[in-house]
Write a structure and sequence with these properties.
Blueprint (H helix, E strand, L loop, with lengths): L3 H17 L6 H8 L2 E6 L5 H9 L16 E5 L8 E4 L2 E7 L5 E5 L15 H13 L4 E8 L8 H9 L6 E6 L11 H4 L11 E2 L5 H5 L4 H14 L12 H41 L7 H24 L6 H16 L3 H4 L2 H11 L10 H13 L2 H25 L7 H35 L3 H5 L25 H41 L2 H8 L3 H7 L4 H27 L3
Parallel strand pairs: 1-5, 1-6, 6-7, 7-8
Antiparallel strand pairs: 2-3, 2-5, 3-4
Helix pairs in contact: 1-9, 1-21, 2-9, 3-9, 9-21, 10-15, 10-20, 11-15, 11-18, 13-14, 14-16, 14-18, 15-16, 15-18, 16-18
């Protein structure tokens, strides 16, 4: 079976850890509230601070008339195995008070008051009660209800408040002080024996040091001896002497604390395990420490790059938003650009006449102005280069934006700003290479349409015989036979139909070329060159690439400290709890 001191000491250790590491919120809050503490409650000048000192066995708290304890004083004491004894208040964790003994967490609360005196706010009565209530209403708080023996128990502020927050009385210990100051011929046996007001736990009488003893610097050892002598020789309380005094109260509290702690060990361990899981998850989220070995660093860089690559591919393939914008380029931007090409101007009657007239020079047209057709078609096809290259650029900018978003969304990369920049630079350089190859390819597609015309299209054209118009009896010139408006309109219409066919073809082939040269290559080999470069880097350069944000490193260190503390607490509790 675990010793009382070992159990209470472990709980104290966890309490101090919760305070020092700031675990009052989040996962630490529930753990803190599960741990027992002792709060001293009573009216002003009821002897609360003196009782607390008597339990501890040391003189360390201020005292005097009126309000002396003006704020809750939380004191955690843990018996040391060796070296000097010390104590720390939670509001001053780095200031140590030495020479203390028992393993308890004690809270000295301001005294309850009934009226505000001069210089105090009108709300002080309510303020103090709310402050005290905020501590004692917690289910982990053991209440020491201090009542002076020379006061009617029915008017005890401490008992009244304790009854409100602990109606079952499981957490309340009644303490009578100032037994030695009662009027001659009176005693408090009815209260101490539980006949005047019964509590679940026995009442304990205390005789504190008098102000004269304090002024004479009577130490706590002598004070305790005098207290024992008082009860042993008292005709009123001699029969209760073995269950009276501050030493007995400390023993009673320790036994109760041990019982409470034993009951709460499973829940405490459960909360510690939950906290450990949360801290491990947080460490996994922000990343474990970087290894010092060059091979391990290279492996880590490659794994981080693969993580980025997975996110990037999810954007392209639809797992994340953004890839649909590439389809938008082909489905909306490219067709709209093709419709805006200036074919109406290029194939106007005036321009058709100009091109056809100049095509054969001084030679007459024997059958049809074939060179005029070719020049009109070549001139029209040239316009397709603009939309083709614009599609390449539009997809390039979409891919660049997806690279930026993918880097930002890759959780594993967030701790490495230098590597983020390196990946962004390498990815953008690769996209530039893909864009250049894609631009060459789509321009070739356009030029191929000029290099060899689709002859079947023209074979299907049936040229109807046309009458040659004669105006004012003037004879036709050598090249005027096909230049009347009807013929020019027919030529323009034929060329326009052919260009429409070419436009439909390019509307399908340009997206294929862009996807093949840019999107497909981005998915296959976005960081291929980067991988090769990284593999040739020295260890120092690898370390620089894995340079972390100092704030993130500090956060990981703090989480690791808390994690080790909770693991140690869990292991120690497991080791001693069931011995």
């Amino acid at each position: 079976m675990a010793t009382m001191e070992s159990l209470i000491g472990l709980v104290n250790k966890i309490q101090r850890a919760c305070t020092v590491l700031g675990d009052h919120g989040g996962q630490g809050m529930s753990l803190w509230e599960a741990l027992p503490s002792v709060a001293v409650v009573g009216g002003q000048s009821s002897g609360k601070s003196s009782v607390l000192e008597s339990i501890v066995g040391r003189d360390f708290l201020p005292r005097g008339s009126g309000i002396v304890t003006r704020r809750p004083l939380v004191l955690q004491l843990h018996k040391t195995q060796s070296g000097a004894e010390y104590a720390e208040f939670l509001h001053a964790p780095k200031r140590r008070f030495t020479d203390f003994v028992v393993n308890l967490t004690l809270i000295d609360l301001p005294g309850l008051t009934k009226v505000a005196v001069e210089g105090q706010s009108d709300s002080i009565v309510e303020d103090i009660e709310n402050m005290v209530r905020s501590y004692v209403e917690k289910p982990n708080c053991i209440i020491l209800a201090i009542t002076p023996a020379n006061q009617d128990i029915a008017t005890s502020d401490a008992i009244k408040l304790a009854r409100e927050v602990d109606p079952s009385g499981e957490r309340t210990f009644g303490v009578l002080t100032k037994l030695d100051l009662m009027d001659k011929g009176t005693n408090a046996t009815e209260v101490l024996e539980g006949r005047a007001y019964r509590l679940q736990h026995p009442w304990v009488g205390i005789v504190n040091r008098s102000q004269a003893d304090i002024n004479k610097n009577v130490d706590m050892i002598v004070a305790r001896r005098k207290e024992r002598e008082y009860f042993e020789t008292s005709p009123d309380y001699g029969h209760l002497a073995s269950k009276m005094g501050s030493e007995y109260l400390a023993k009673l509290l320790s036994q109760h604390l041990e019982l409470v702690i034993r009951q709460r060990i499973p829940s405490i361990i459960s909360m510690i395990n939950k906290t450990i899981d949360e801290l491990n998850a947080e460490l996994d989220r922000i990343g474990r420490p970087v290894a010092a070995d060059g091979g391990a660093q290279l492996y880590m860089i490659l794994e981080l790059c693969r993580a980025f690559d997975r996110v990037f591919k999810e954007h392209l393939d639809g797992g994340r938003p953004g890839g649909d914008r590439i389809y938008g380029v082909f489905d909306h931007q490219l067709p709209a650009a093709l419709k805006k090409l200036p074919f109406d101007r290029h194939l106007s009657l005036k321009n058709v006449q100009k091109v056809v007239t100049e095509a054969d020079g001084y030679q007459p047209h024997l059958i049809a102005p074939e060179q005029g057709y070719r020049r009109l078609i070549d001139g029209s096809i040239t316009y397709f280069k603009g939309p083709a290259e614009a599609s390449v650029d539009a997809v390039h900018f979409v891919l660049k934006e997806l690279v930026r978003k993918s880097i930002a969304e890759t959780e594993e990369l967030k701790r490495f700003p230098s590597l983020q920049n390196d990946i962004a630079t390498a990815a953008n350089e690769a996209l530039e290479r893909f864009r250049e190859e894609s631009r060459k390819t789509v321009v070739r597609l356009v030029e191929m349409e000029s290099s060899y015309l689709t002859v079947d299209f023209f074979r299907k054209l049936h040229a109807a015989p046309e009458k040659k118009p004669e105006k004012n009896g003037n004879p036709p010139g050598p090249n005027n036979d096909h230049f009347h408006d009807t013929s020019l309109a027919r030529i323009g219409s034929n060329v326009s139909a052919y260009i429409a066919m070419v436009s439909d073809t390019l509307k399908n082939t340009i997206p294929k070329a862009v996807v093949y040269c840019q999107v497909r290559e981005a998915k296959r080999s976005l960081l291929t060159h980067f991988y090769a470069q990284v593999g040739r880097k020295e260890k120092e350069r690898l370390s620089a690439m894995l340079d972390e944000d100092p704030q993130l490193m500090e956060k990981r260190t703090q989480i690791a400290k808390r994690l080790e503390l909770y693991k140690a607490a869990r292991d120690e509790i497991d080791a001693v709890a069931w011995k």
